[in-house]
Amino acid sequence: MKAFVAGATGQTGRRIVEELVKREIPVRALVRNLEKGQQLLPPQVELVVGDVLNPQSLNEAIADCTVVLCATGATPSFDPTGPYRIDYEGTKHLVDVAKVKGIEQFVLVSSLCVSNLFHPLNLFWLILVWKRQAEKYIENSGLTYTIVRPGGLKNTEDEANIVMKSQDKLFDGSIPRTKVAVVSVEALFQPAARNKIVEIVTNAEAPAQAFPELFASVV
Q1: How wide is the angle at C-alpha 81 spanned by C-alphas 80 and 86, nearest 5°?
Q2: Are 53 and 93 in contact (CB under 8 A)?
Q3: Considering the entire predicted model, what is its pTM?
C-alpha cells in the first residue's frame, strides 16, 4: 500500500498523514507550497507539488500510489466560487485521475448534514451542497470508496468513544480531528468500510466498539 493524501497540510489532512506514518504506510502528500509542507509534515513523507484544480499535476503526482485520501476543503473567504471549485471540482479531478490510475480505494473526508440544504453552513457559498455533489460523483465513479462524514471538528483530544452511523442519521455532535484521521486510515483495512458513507461523532456515554464492529453496523 502507498497512500496519496490531498489536503495534506490542512488541519485534518496533516493528522491523516501522521496516522499513516505511525502505521508505517508510505505516504506521498500533495502540497501547493513545498516549504509549508516541509514545515508541517513528518520528514519521511514524500512531498509533491500540485493542486486538485490542476488535473495534469494530479496525474503526475499520484503516480504509483495505490490508495487516495482526500481531506481538501474550501476555507471561508469572500470568493463565492471557492466551495464549488475546491470541494466539488477539485474532488472530481482527483476521482477522475484515480480511476485512470486504477486506485484501489478512495477515502473522502466530507461533513455531517451535507443533505440538509437549509443548514447554516450553506450560507458559506453552499459548501455542504458542493460536498454532497462530490460524494455523489464518487458514489457513481465505479471506484471502491469510503466517505467519512465527521461532526464538528475539534483540535483538542477527548476520551469519548466513537459513534458511527449510516448516512443522514447524525445531525449534531463533534469529534477530534485525530479520531477522524484514525477512522479514515482504518477504512483502508476494514472490508466492511468499502462503498459506504459513515457518519462519526464522539460521545462519552457511548460503548467502546472495535472498528470491524463499527463499520459492519453501517448499512
Answers
A1: 130
A2: yes
A3: 0.97
Statement: residue 76 has pLDDT above 90:
no
Residues of the chain by 3-state class (helix, strand, coil), percent to 5:
40, 20, 40
As given in the structure block, the three cell numbers for residue 78 are 469572500
HSE-CB of 38 using CA atoms within 13 angstroms = 4
Residue 117, class by beta-carbon neighbours within 10 Å (0-12 exposed, 13-18 middle, 19+ buried)? exposed
* pLDDT above 90 coverage of the chain, percent: 97
* Whether the Cβ atoms of residue 88 and residue 130 lie closer than 8 Å to each other: yes
Q: What is the dihedral of CA 154, 151, 219, 117, to 10 degrees?
A: -160
Strands 161-166 and 196-203, sheet pairing? antiparallel
The predicted-structure confidence for 79-100, as pLDDT tens digits, reads as follows 999 999 999 999 999 999 999 9
